[in-house]
Design a protein that fits this description.
Helix content is 65%, strand content 0%. It is an all-alpha fold and 176 residues long. It has a domain at 43-163. Helix 1 crosses helix 4, helix 2 (51-61) packs across helix 3 (71-87) and helix 3 crosses helix 7 (141-159). It comes from Stutzerimonas kunmingensis. This is Twin-arginine translocation pathway signal protein.
């Protein structure tokens, strides 16, 4: 077996190549998704192209926070809360979130960057866990930031909902 070692120059080349791939994918996805910028039915911001990915990621990230029988409602509650939060972002931040969602949804970039080649709807839980772990532990800061952003957005959306409070023992905000 060959041993791979990277010196500083090699590491810089890998980082630049990864950055170029992500930037090119983001530019391409923005170009190809320009016509899909309208919000999905019932949402302010989330688009039809975002929903398959979010509907597969959310239950895995919420595992253990609600009973399995309540998970479909928890996912819907989380998506509505996420959408409302995104609706109140600045245009610049919303653009970055959309770029992240585009890179994860567009087949041309989704496969190479996430390992989900066949689409979110048919990806197994193991494939999605592997993707999340790969991004979390990536040598590319951009992928680690993408992982952290996804995790924070989804978990904040869930825990902003009163449905999540009982599980963690939070009685809710004080009555004024």
């Amino acid at each position: 077996m060959h041993e791979i070692s990277l010196d500083r120059r090699g590491l810089l080349k890998v980082g630049l190549l990864g950055g170029a791939i992500l930037a090119g994918g983001g530019l391409l996805s923005r170009t190809l998704s320009a016509s899909a910028d309208g919000a999905a039915s019932g949402f302010f911001v989330l688009r039809d192209s975002d929903l398959p990915m979010l509907r597969r990621l959310t239950p895995l990230l919420l595992e253990g926070s609600t009973a399995p029988s309540d998970m479909p409602q928890a996912v819907q509650t989380t998506l509505v809360s996420l959408d409302l939060g995104l609706h109140h972002l600045s245009p610049a931040l919303l653009s970055q979130v959309r770029q992240l969602f585009d890179v994860m949804s567009l087949p041309l970039t989704r496969g190479p960057l996430t390992g989900i080649w066949s689409g979110w709807e048919v990806a197994s839980d193991d494939q999605i866990h592997a993707f999340l772990q790969r991004w979390q532990n990536s040598s590319l800061a951009l992928l680690r930031q993408g992982h952290a952003s996804l995790l924070q957005m989804i978990l904040m959306a869930w825990y902003a909902s009163p449905a999540a409070w009982a599980h963690c023992g939070y009685p809710g905000p004080p009555k004024v």
